[in-house]
């Protein structure tokens, strides 16, 4: 039996059984506060892990206390990645991967961010094993949510993930997939490897 | 409905959302630097759901 039952006391002093719902994967929230960045700081040096969770209950305990993207300062990046995977190109699991990105006007990504998290931790993607995690980037005029995947050359898996993600978000616009290697070589000039 | 010891633990969005209102306190042992907490967390984190509804 996968479920773990535990006893918890209510505020009335009574005891009730609460059921913990374990997730398939453990996930870590990471945060990069834009205001701490400086020109001298190497990219990625200001990212810090916040907490690793492994149950549905822990997820909500965190989510309900953490600001949503619309309340973050411009420049902030908030990540949710599988445990043991650092949200960096250099991470060996991410190194050959890429990312799908969906754009939203400033203050309009909160629901999409939540639905992205729920789809990931609930293992709703047919190719969930190919997913590293997700990040929301808060910028001056827009918020971007990106879904990082492991093996960019596996086209069918990337297309499947991209299509399902759009369905989960009810996102009507086209989204693009950029390979990390292309982004490293061409920065903002990198072209989409796939679109859907 | 959603899980078995032999299969991937899958939870639908609607199933997960049922639990949202039940877990409003930070996990025990949660600790981050104050300067990060100030920008990351609601000001009344740790105070519980009723307090958050009071303003």
Description:
Chain A: Belongs to the eukaryotic initiation factor 4E family. Chain A: Pfam families: IF4E. The complex is a heterodimer of chains A (196) and B (55). With 196 residues, chain A is of the alpha+beta class. Helix content of chain A is 21%, strand content 34%. Chain A has helices spanning 56-63, 110-121, 155-169, 180-186; strands at residues 4-9, 15-20, 22-32, 48-55, 77-82, 98-105, 131-138, 142-149, 176-179, 194-195. In chain A, the strands form two sheets. In chain A, strands 4-3-5-7-8-6-9-10 form an eight-stranded antiparallel sheet. Chain A has a two-stranded antiparallel ribbon with strand order 1-2. In chain A, a hairpin with a 5-residue loop joins strand 1 and strand 2 (15-20). Residues 1-16 of chain A have low confidence and may be disordered. Chain B is an all-alpha fold. Chain B is built from three helices and no strands. Chain B is elongated, with a radius of gyration of 16 Å. The termini of chain B are far apart. Classes of the chains: A alpha+beta (196), B mainly alpha (55). The interface between A and B is medium-sized, with 38 and 30 residues.
What is the H/E string of chain A?
EEEEHEEHEEHEHE
Distance between the termini of chain B: 38 Å
Terminus-to-terminus distance of chain A: 39 Å
Number of helices of chain B: 3
Oligomeric state: heterodimer
Give the overall form of chain A.
globular
Task: Kindly report the average pLDDT value of chain B.
Answer: 77
CATH topology of chain A: RNA Cap, Translation Initiation Factor Eif4e
Shape of chain B: elongated
Main interface pair?
A-B, 38 and 30 residues
Family (chain A): Belongs to the eukaryotic initiation factor 4E family.
GO molecular function (chain A): RNA 7-methylguanosine cap binding; translation initiation factor activity
Region (Disordered) (chain A): 1-20
Organism (chain A): Kalanchoe fedtschenkoi (Lavender scallops)
């Amino acid at each position: 039996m996968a479920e773990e039952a535990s006893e918890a006391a209510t505020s009335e002093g009574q005891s009730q059984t609460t059921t913990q719902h374990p997730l398939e994967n453990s996930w870590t929230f990471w945060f990069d506060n834009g205001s701490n960045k400086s020109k001298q700081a190497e990219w990625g040096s200001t990212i810090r892990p916040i907490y690793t969770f492994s149950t549905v209950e822990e997820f909500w305990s965190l989510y309900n206390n953490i600001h949503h993207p619309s309340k973050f300062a411009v420049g902030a990046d908030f990540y949710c990645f599988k445990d043991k995977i650092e949200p960096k190109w250099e991470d060996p699991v991410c190194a050959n991967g890429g990312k799908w990105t969906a754009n939203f006007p400033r203050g309009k990504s909160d629901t999409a961010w939540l639905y992205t998290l729920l789809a990931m931790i609930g293992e709703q993607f047919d190719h969930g094993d190919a997913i590293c995690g997700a990040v929301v980037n808060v910028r001056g005029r827009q918020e971007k949510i990106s879904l990082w995947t492991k093996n960019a050359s596996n086209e069918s898996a990337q297309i499947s993930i991209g299509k399902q993600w759009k369905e989960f978000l009810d996102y009507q616009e086209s989204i693009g997939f950029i390979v990390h290697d292309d982004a490293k070589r061409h920065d903002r000039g990198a072209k989409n490897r796939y679109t859907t | 409905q959603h899980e078995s010891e032999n299969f991937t633990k899958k939870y639908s969005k609607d199933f997960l959302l049922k639990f949202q209102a039940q877990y409003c306190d930070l996990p025990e042992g949660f600790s981050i630097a104050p300067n990060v907490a100030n920008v990351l967390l609601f000001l009344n984190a740790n105070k519980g759901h009723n307090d958050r509804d009071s303003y």
